[in-house]
UniProtKB/TrEMBL annotation:
<feature type="domain" description="Thioredoxin">
    <location>
        <begin position="47"/>
        <end position="258"/>
    </location>
</feature>
<dbReference type="InterPro" id="IPR036249">
    <property type="entry name" value="Thioredoxin-like_sf"/>
</dbReference>
<protein>
    <submittedName>
        <fullName>Protein-disulfide isomerase</fullName>
    </submittedName>
</protein>
<keyword id="KW-0812">Transmembrane</keyword>
<dbReference type="Pfam" id="PF13462">
    <property type="entry name" value="Thioredoxin_4"/>
</dbReference>
<keyword id="KW-0472">Membrane</keyword>
<comment type="similarity">
    <text>Belongs to the thioredoxin family. DsbA subfamily.</text>
</comment>
<keyword id="KW-1015">Disulfide bond</keyword>
<dbReference type="GO" id="GO:0016853">
    <property type="term" value="F:isomerase activity"/>
</dbReference>
<keyword id="KW-1133">Transmembrane helix</keyword>
<keyword id="KW-0413">Isomerase</keyword>
<keyword id="KW-0560">Oxidoreductase</keyword>
<feature type="compositionally biased region" description="Low complexity">
    <location>
        <begin position="49"/>
        <end position="65"/>
    </location>
</feature>
<feature type="region of interest" description="Disordered">
    <location>
        <begin position="44"/>
        <end position="75"/>
    </location>
</feature>
<keyword id="KW-0676">Redox-active center</keyword>
<dbReference type="GO" id="GO:0016491">
    <property type="term" value="F:oxidoreductase activity"/>
</dbReference>
<feature type="transmembrane region" description="Helical">
    <location>
        <begin position="21"/>
        <end position="39"/>
    </location>
</feature>
């Protein structure tokens, strides 16, 4: 019997906001680390993490790193990109949990919706509620202005303690193919149904540039690592790309907890 194939990650659209185009210099180093650590890339032409890097013109192929080098690279990524902020409204789980999974995603990405509805709840039940895992959300809006608008709305709901209800409702109602629509009326409707009490405040917060800057900070993190698809994850610094099967996440979380 063949093994189940992971879902394809959503790739970046051709029309990207101008702020997404300037990649920091660290992308080169981080991109190499991700190439060493990434699990289950599904974009066909990309080598697996355990394959030697392809040779470039006039150079020889880089050697495949050994396990100690991969572990060191994972620790570097974990140190750089895991926040562990007490009281973070965009995180689930204990701040001192031994395993942290950082999730980079877009509200308009159907594979992000699949992970949110099919996989994350089981990870919360098995690991977050047991104190073993912490999940930290990062916005990585890739599909135009509505992606960013949805991210802003979720954070505006978060100012009234309703980030996760808004977040989960938005993904629960998203289509499993194509990109969800998040026009102004829909965002207001989601806010009401997710329990936002003060809609006037919510609408004011939608216009607060602080929230948009928070989102762009998250996206800049993703760019530093060279992420070009959603969902993408770091599990104690180990990169996972795509809505992988539940068993993949379970195995990696259990492995990380033992180190």
């Amino acid at each position: 019997m063949s093994q189940p194939q992971p879902d394809q990650p959503e790739t970046q659209s051709a029309q990207r906001p101008a702020w997404q185009l300037a990649l920091p210099a660290i992308v080169v180093v981080a991109g190499v680390l991700l190439a060493y650590l990434a699990l289950g890339r599904t974009d066909g032409d990309t080598p697996r993490a355990d394959a030697p890097a392809p040779a470039t013109s006039g150079t020889s192929a880089s050697p495949t790193p050994n396990q100690s080098q991969m572990d060191a690279a994972a620790r570097q990524l974990d140190s750089r990109f895991t926040r562990r902020r007490e009281g973070d409204p965009y995180a689930k789980g204990r701040v001192d949990a031994p395993v942290v999974m950082v999730e980079y995603a877009d509200y308009r990405c159907p594979y992000c919706a699949k992970f949110s509805t099919d996989t994350r709840p089981e990870l919360v039940r098995r690991f977050v509620e047991q104190g073993l895992l912490r999940i930290e959300w990062r916005d990585l809006p890739m599909f135009g202005a509505e992606s960013e608008a949805a991210a802003v709305a979720a954070r505006a709901a978060g100012r009234q303690g309703r980030f996760w209800p808004f977040h989960e409702l938005a993904f629960a109602e998203a289509p499993r193919s194509g990109h969800a629509d998040f026009g102004p009326d829909r965002l207001l409707d989601l806010a009401r149904r997710s329990g936002v009490a003060d809609m006037a405040k919510f609408e004011r917060d939608l216009a607060d540039p602080t929230l948009r800057q928070e989102i762009r900070t998250d996206a800049a993190e993703g760019q530093e690592m060279g992420l070009t698809s959603t969902p993408s994850f770091l599990i104690n610094g180990r990169a996972v790309v795509g809505a992988q099967p539940l068993e993949t996440f379970v195995r990696l979380i259990e492995q990380a907890a033992k180190k």
